[in-house]
Specification:
mainly alpha
């Protein structure tokens, strides 16, 4: 089991080292150097995405809007429940004993 982990680790290291050596030999200064984490996050295989400040701000605004809508719905439900709990005044027709006729 440990030999498999060692093989995978060594393969990854060899790949990264070859890539780094190739970039050094080409001497290309036009390519911007990215950190390992930036490369990992920009990969199509990563479930995590790096967000810009504007994207994060927009995402937070959407969440706040959703929460405001939920709060408004809950406030309406509370108002309806308070209305239902308020005692109702009796009608004049109810004073005579209701709708059951006397014998």
């Amino acid at each position: 089991m440990f030999s498999i982990f060692g093989l995978v680790g060594q393969t990854i290291y060899n790949f990264a080292d070859a890539r780094h050596s190739e970039m050094q030999q080409s001497g290309s200064k036009t390519l911007q150097k990215k950190s390992m984490w930036e490369n990992l996050l920009s990969s199509g295989w990563s479930p995590v995405k790096a967000l810009s400040d504007r994207e994060f701000e927009r995402m937070l605004e959407e969440k706040l809007l959703r929460l405001d809508a939920e709060i408004a719905l809950i406030d309406e439900d509370i108002a309806k429940l308070k209305e239902n709990m308020r005692p109702r005044p009796m009608d004049e027709s109810d004073e005579g004993g209701g709708s059951i006729p006397k014998r």
